[in-house]
Amino acid sequence: MTRSIDYGNLMHRAMRGLIQQVLTDISEHGLPGEHHFFITFDTMHPEVEIADWLSDRYPGEMTVVIQHWFDNLTVTDEGFAITLNFGDNPEPLYIPYDSIKTFVDPSVEFGLRFETQDDDDDAEDDHPEAPMEEMAEDLAPSEAEVVSLDSFRK
């Protein structure tokens, strides 16, 4: 059997490490300037912890915004816990890094998109970049620089 380097998984780990570093800094020093984040995650991931009413309302994925008000941000090697306000109702969440689908900071036009194995079926589309463009348009007022990990896969 031929040994090969799994660049896709290495990039996923590195990008999740970047998110961990950013959130650790935010937990210690707060959000600098105009920075804020849109984080989309898989609500059905087995390690996600959210209120039942949130999982009922968002049965597949959910996007949270970390901007003006958040509390109890705790960052670990596996994920982060945070309390966010949903219509004057503070709710604690736990989001493992493995559940994150997109991470966008529109203030600096930066974004990451994590592809899943299911998304690989779409790789033969005529327009493989369209989902990333839609994500940037949906989540940010200006175009975000989106890093796709598909280019690192065989």
Give structural notes.
With about 150 residues, this protein is an alpha+beta fold. It has three helices and eight strands; from the N terminus they run αβαββββββαβ. It has helices at about 5-30, 50-55, 130-140; strands at about 35-40, 60-65, 70-75, 80-85, 90-95, 100-105, 110-115, 145-150. β7, α3 and β8 (about 145-150) form a beta-alpha-beta unit.
Describe the structure in brief.
By secondary structure, the protein is of the alpha+beta class. 25% of the residues lie in helices and 29% in strands. The chain has 3 helices and 8 strands.
Features:
single chain; 154 residues; alpha+beta; 5-stranded mixed sheet; 3-stranded antiparallel sheet; 3 helices; 8 strands
**Helix-strand pattern:** HEHEEEEEEHE
Q: Beta-sheet strand percentage?
A: 25-35%
Helix proportion: 25-40%
Whole-angstrom Rg: 16 Å
Estimated structural class? alpha+beta
Given as residue ranges, the uncertain stretches (5+ residues, pLDDT < 50) are 117-137, 139-145
Strand order, sheet with most strands: 2-1-6-7-8
Main beta sheet: strand number and arrangement? Answer: 5 strands, mixed
Can you count the beta strands?
8
What is the overall shape? globular
Topology:
Blueprint: H1 7-29, E1 37-42, H2 52-57, E2 61-66, E3 71-75, E4 79-85, E5 90-96, E6 100-105, E7 110-113, H3 130-139, E8 145-148
Parallel strand pairs: 7-8
Antiparallel strand pairs: 1-2, 1-6, 3-4, 4-5, 6-7
